[in-house]
Amino acid sequence: QVQLVESGGGLVQPGGSLRLSCAASGSIFSINVMGWYRQAPGQQRELVATITRGGSANYANSVKGRFTISRDNTKNTVSLQMNSLKPEDTAVYYCNAGGLGYNWGQGTQVTVSS
Questions:
Q1: What are phi and psi of 111, to 5 degrees?
Q2: Consecutive 10-residue runs of the chain (114 residues): their mean pLDDT?
């Protein structure tokens, strides 16, 4: 089973930027859709962005225009560039296959606060 390790989170002020990285222990080439998800305190986990093997991306309306998802199939990584961060972006961020075929990793905490 592929293991996923998220990193890059931290505390930033509103309007700031962070780049999250997801490292897979094995190949993700065969997985057509990879995605980033987040879970805020007291909230359900929600889908943030997805990307296909070929690089076609989709975003939740709440982050569209601010976040950019990318993947490197040769390095088995998926990244999420987050710009113009808002307090409502505060959450633990996770990556996974679009079909949730992998076990969830520990996630990485993103806190946006002034």
A1: -125, 125
A2: 94 98 93 96 96 96 98 96 98 94 94 96
Residues 6 or more apart whose Cβ sits within 8 Å of residue 67: 48, 49, 59, 80, 81, 82, 83
* Measured distance CA(67)–CA(53) in Å, rounded: 18
Q: Which of 71, 62, 9, 73 is nearest to 35 (CA)?
A: 71
Longest Cα–Cα distance of the chain, Å, equals: 41
Contact status, residue 3 vs residue 103, Cβ threshold 8 Å: yes
Please measure the distance between the N-terminal and C-terminal CA atoms of the chain and give it in whole angstroms: 40
Choose among 7, 5, 55, 61: nearest CA to 33.
55
Measured in degrees and rounded to the nearest 5, phi and psi for residue 13 equal -80, 155
Between CA 91 and CA 107 the distance in angstroms is 10
Among candidates 38, 46, 40, 24, which has minimal Cα distance to 101? Answer: 24
